[in-house]
Here is the input.
Amino acid sequence: MPILQRETVLSDEKQPDATQQEILYIRQGDQKDGYAEVSVSADKMAVVANFYPPVPGGQFLTWQNISARLEDFHITNGILHDVIQSSIFKTNSTHQPVKGIIIAQGTPPVTEIPEHFVLRKDLLERKPEIDPETARIDWHSISAFTIVKTKEPIARRMNKTDGAAGMDVSGQETPFQIQRMPPFSAGKNVIDHPAGLFAGKSGRLSIDEKGTVSIEEVLVLKKGVDFSTGNITFPGDIILSGKIADGFKIYSGGSLAASDVVDATEIVCKKDLIAQSGIEGGTKGAIRIGGNLNARYIQNCRVAVRGDVTVTGSIMQSRIYTMGSIIMGDSGKLVSSKCIVIGNIKAFNIGSPHGPSTYIRCGTDFTVQQELDIANEQLKHLTLKLKQAEEIYKIEPLPDIGQFIEEARAKKLEITSRIPTYLPRIDTNDNAFIEVRGTIFPGTEIEICHVPYKVVKAMKQVVFKLDKSRGVIITEPWKKQND
Here is the structure.
């Protein structure tokens, strides 16, 4: 009769529940016979065996006896009969032990995964694309914000995966677990669609501690703009509290409201810009605004505005281009600046007794004027190049030089014929006026619809208008009711 023995082995006495293994011994008969040492894992999900050959005079192990004894030990599920047979054959034929063989495996339970959302990894971990071949990286362009556009997918909806119970090697059922998933849900401006979550509007992606996914239409920058935020490109409104560090840019698809002084490198707003504490542009500051501009003061900046410019304080050493009017406060001063406006200019003082003169042009569409200036500059540059090429061609008439001359003459003709088309569109408001409630100083140059006027002496409380019949600028006393 085969001998069966059962022994319990603890590999770590401090944790018997987790590491306890049951060791089973199966022999053919006496001590000389071949035998198997069988270990059952603590969770009864695996059985591992070591097979030993008989000593001389002993009997070989047989598959029938091993199989029968496993059943006696209640090991009835997941038995790998082919593995047992091949292991017995190997130890009997080679007279060498065969160890660590898995001879039975339970069926593990299948974890249930509830329906959930999987957020796009690139949105959660968005990082700048850095080319290792480039010598320099523009760290200004690295943004700390994740911006999404309308209808852009945010997360995929993953359907429920049903769980299934398992079975250990003794045939006992093992229950399945339910996996906990991040509880993402649709919040403000996010569409909950059968396919997943989608942006209902363009804006900044926001996820709170409860997993609510929202799209913020207003970007609040409480600490300003610097290396911690990178350049700002946002489709909605921006509320800025704090400074803009040197070299950083802001692009807003809505309006920008700033409580601190705006240190402008480059700012673009499709709607309004409100600078409660003023604007400073350094030497290269540039601002483009699709709506109105309201600022305490403007200094050393180039500003292009489609609406009106309202400044309570001063405009100094700046270039202001607007398709509306410039309206300054009760003590507003326009000093050492160049202004081109379609509408009117209302200021307290214009110019100064000392320093660079102030240049004002009213009734003029600056966008058309810029196109005309570009065309004139192109014509000037092309004329010079053409003259040089013609002189060279006289000495050495090469075909490529001749072709350049032919193309340059055609381009020059095209620009020359285009320039006259700008002129009727430049001066669009011959009712524009310049109102001075205080003093306009000598040296100030004025144009209304290209009719010039140079101030040669200080003038107080005066209004400049265009006399269309005579083609000259006239002056009238300013009266308070004109406000």
Observations:
- Residues 368-426 form a domain with the Methane Monooxygenase Hydroxylase; Chain G, domain 1 fold (CATH 1.20.58).
